[in-house]
Specification:
This protein is mainly α. It folds into 2 domains: 92 residues; 95 residues, no CATH class.
């Protein structure tokens, strides 16, 4: 941080009010901005609420494991005779009658894919729970925050945008794809904090471009019966239903 050009006399009415003596170099405690690195985007670190999330994931893994035996076709599985020879034969480790074929009956059975997923999911979830438990104990030892309330508020805040999407799907049959998209795109621009005139215009134009790309050019299907379009003359209604 560069030195301040102002002297204590410039900053304070009385010299004794200044924490600097005129020769002291001012240095900010704020860390300098760092450039974003790609590897930092994928950097893993445990924070508050990690233990609760890890418990939920572990319980979910055990839930799938408990119902694997009855819900995946394991009980009615059909394994070939001499399974060891069959597996070696399928993977090219053994040669039967001078020919080796591609993977066959086992991979086509309904229980194989769930089993392979559980072989990864269950150990990974339990191992992650162990690491999360140790991390939480360490944070408590050094009086660091561990409450999950902050993370829950962030998840709850995201539901706001789910409500926007649900509302959008409900008003499309009423106002049509064009008007609904213009309203949503412009409002979301304002809601995200871009509230200057240029940003609002950008949101409006971008929304219109989305409509032209998906509805006019690609002819993505939309509801046939739209209340707003039904109020228009027949020719205009047909045009709007076709292109907007």
């Amino acid at each position: 941080m560069s030195q301040s050009s102002n002297t204590p006399d410039d900053l304070y009415l009385f010299d004794e009010a200044s924490p600097l003596d005129g020769t002291t170099v001012f240095q900010s405690e704020c860390p300098p901005d760092k450039k974003v690195k790609v590897e930092d985007l994928f950097k893993f670190s445990r924070t508050r609420g990690d233990l609760e999330v890890s418990i939920v994931v572990a319980l979910l893994a055990l839930f799938f494991f408990a119902f694997f035996w009855t819900q995946t076709g394991w009980e009615t599985r059909k394994l070939p005779d001499e399974l060891g020879t069959y597996v070696a034969y399928q993977f090219g480790l053994a040669d039967i009658e001078g020919r080796v074929t591609r993977l066959g009956r086992i991979l086509k059975q309904s229980w194989v894919a769930p089993l392979l997923c559980l072989l990864v999911f269950v150990p990974a979830a339990l191992w992650n729970l162990r690491g999360s438990w140790n991390e939480t104990a360490w944070r408590k030892r050094f009086l660091l925050p561990t409450s999950v309330s902050f993370e829950l508020t962030k998840y709850a805040a995201a539901l706001e945008y789910v409500a926007y999407f649900i509302g959008y799907t409900l008003i499309v049959p009423i106002l049509g794809y064009l008007v609904s998209t213009l309203i949503l795109g412009t409002y979301l621009t304002w809601r995200l904090g871009y509230r200057g005139r240029s940003w609002i215009v950008t949101g409006f134009v971008s929304s219109f471009a989305v409509v032209v790309a998906f509805r006019t050019l690609l002819q993505i299907k939309t509801p046939i019966s739209i209340w707003l379009y039904d109020q228009l003359p027949a020719a205009t209604r047909a045009f709007m239903l076709t292109y907007f």
